[in-house]
Amino acid sequence: MNPNARPRSAQLARSPAVPSDPVADELRRYDDHLRDVRGLSAGTRRNHRRILAELLRKKFAGGVVTLAKLRAADVRRFIARQLGDSPSHSAAAQVATALRSYLRYRTVCGDSVAGLNAVISSPVQWKLASLPRALKPDEVQRLLGAFPYGRKPRRGYAIVRCALDMGLRAGEIANLSIDDIDWREGTVTMKGTKSRRQDILPLPMATGQALADYLQHERPANPSRALFFCRRESRDIPVTTHAVQNVIRRACRRVGLPDSGSHLLRHTLACRLVENGSSLKEVADVLRHRSLETTRIYAKLDTPSLAEVALPWPGSES
Known about the structure:
Elements lengths: L7 H7 L7 H17 L3 H19 L11 H12 L5 H20 L5 H4 L19 H8 L8 H14 L3 H5 L6 E2 L4 E4 L8 E4 L2 H13 L11 E4 L2 E4 L2 H14 L7 H14 L4 H8 L4 H4 L7 H7 L9
Antiparallel strand pairs: 1-2, 2-3, 4-5
Helix pairs in contact: 2-3, 3-5, 8-10, 8-12, 12-13
């Protein structure tokens, strides 16, 4: 033993302390609240943190986050900077939602936020003002025919069928496991969905055939039970939500369709169900909407039912 060596405790005492980042600590606590209390998805939490980080670092750079020092004028200026001269409804809604969410969290922490909440205005949008965008039957066939030209045709085809035939969201497709599929019963068990519940959905024959073809001929041999994989840095890893969206977007671009993700295919399924006579309750069950209000927009596509309640045109015979 070296007699000149200092005790380890003395070395630790002299080691420089890692500087703390109050804003990062605050964002970490806020993220824990969103995950454990609010039950929000990773993507939603990431978006909230991104917006809040810009506000907090602008106001409290290098110092402790003290909400009492945050003024209504600070919030108003921050919103104006974020939205610029021509804000979109989506961008304005994201900023307003993130700010309100953080202020609710600070209320739980015991802060008074009434004055700050008052300056956050929700963007105006008429409810159900637009028709849901969906693919026409010929466009669906073009999309399904896009995959023989891709690097992973069977995987891409199976992913599109999951969104188009079952209305699965991109995150739900990415989270699918081999164990979720009951081939004998013809069902798929959905876990960890947006509604945070477990659902059992019927597996359409075309979707089942696409999945079986992918599993038999294209899925890499991997001990993971994840259903879909992608290649990254010479390794096969389970796909992410972003990767699923990219598969659908690239397929749309290859056949000249609007650059859209899985949500367009959910709309396409819902529109097809309405056109075939399904009720809004049936559409809501297939899409697993938590509220029938979310499904009401598809009522605008039900032309026969709308005709029955339409008022007569002034001056007409009926």
